[in-house]
Design brief:
Blueprint lengths: L1 H23 L7 H8 L1 H15 L13 H16 L2 H19 L2
Helix pairs in contact: 3-4, 4-5
Protein name: AzlD domain-containing protein
Keywords: Membrane, Transmembrane, Transmembrane helix
Pfam families: AzlD
Length: 107
């Protein structure tokens, strides 16, 4: 019973927070500094998710070697992103390098 209440409580809190954004979205005006800071949130969150997975894929210490296909794929993605600025190409090349590295180089 405690788990059900916990899940219902989390769902209620999530609903209230998300609906407040839609209900109050037009009435709240953020200062330019806050708007600028909020524009960096998606990049920061993605970086916080991807970098630990690429650097230490098994949860231990950092694996900064050529035998880490996640790191090689991430570095290839960074290079393609800087060169092309095209997200779909960046994702495709990163995945291709990861799978090819894992399938052919490490075998």
């Amino acid at each position: 019973m405690n788990y059900v209440l916990l899940i219902l409580g989390m769902a209620l809190i999530t609903y209230v927070i998300r609906s407040a954004v839609f209900v109050l979205g037009d009435r709240i005006v953020f200062p330019p500094l806050v708007r600028t800071a909020l524009s960096f949130v998606p990049v920061t969150v993605l970086t916080a998710i991807i970098v630990p997975m690429a650097v230490s894929p098994h949860g231990g210490g950092p694996e900064l070697t050529w035998r880490n296909p996640q790191l090689v794929g991430a570095l290839a993605s960074c290079a393609v992103c800087v060169a092309t600025r095209r997200p779909l190409v960046t994702i495709a090349v990163g995945l291709a390098v990861f799978f090819l590295w894992q399938g052919f180089v490490l075998r």
